[in-house]
């Protein structure tokens, strides 16, 4: 027992640097996109040129005429939250989709909240009942904004979500696209046919329209070939509300909205598969605060979930390995002492006594 405890403590001390008590560090696995990006960033910071090295390099003057202008700039949540930067509100969803990239810049899409849904098949998605359920998302958002008293804020940045039901209404511009009552089964089936046609031939005129590009870039999952209409299908809904810019603001609203959407879309017919509201850090901190009783009872200021589990595993594995090692060592030592000279193998008299006592007990 003492040997097992010693080996466990030794293993913990030897790998002490691997235990991280920061909740925001070390939660991604290796060989993933996130871990590779983090590794690249750490290496970049270590190997980046310092200020003295940069000043020592000769430089030339560059005028504005020689600089290339970029249409897409990094997105700043503070600028987008500004009321002055808010675009003019379209009167219908189709108008909003058509002005994306002109009156509404593409960079607006990045800070907007998103949802991912799963349906049993592509065919099961295109019917009136399914489109009505999806179309109700905007009403859920408006209701939650009103309940939480956020009507006066710029949280809702656009009037409509980028949602499949509204896209089906765009086949007939004479029909207003600002209400779910405008859904029509004929246009839904026609919209489905156009999507499948564009999958096989993207060169047609309809497939080059901005709305068609929005569907392939923002709504539908990426695929290397034609859509298998009988396989499970994933698609996105880009919500008209902004993500939290710091992970903590309006946390109660996002939590309430997520809970409401999870309750309404949890069946196999239409299931919520993912959500992005930018509040991951806030929710994580909230869950940690809910475990504060552990600190009160055990006197631990912070309860490191995964790190404590790793320590338990180190102790368990170390104790198990020590037990097996000692058992195998004694067994093989006794066997060898029977065949070879005790002097050569350093088999003392105590080992012989232990062997005899084991036989007597057996």
Automatic annotation (TrEMBL):
Keywords tagged on the record: Glycoprotein, Membrane, Signal, Transmembrane, Transmembrane helix
Predominant subcellular localization, coarse grouping: membrane
InterPro entries referenced in this protein's UniProt entry, alphabetically: Dispatched_Hh_regulator
Residues spanning the signal sequence: 1-18
Gene Ontology cellular component annotations, sorted alphabetically: membrane
Subcellular location: Membrane
UniProt xrefs under PANTHER family: PROTEIN DISPATCHED, PROTEIN DISPATCHED-RELATED
Listed GO biological process terms: smoothened signaling pathway
A GO molecular-function annotation: transmembrane transporter activity
Name of the protein this chain belongs to: SSD domain-containing protein
Membrane topology: Multi-pass membrane protein
Transmembrane annotation, as ranges: 302-325
Origin species: Acanthocheilonema viteae
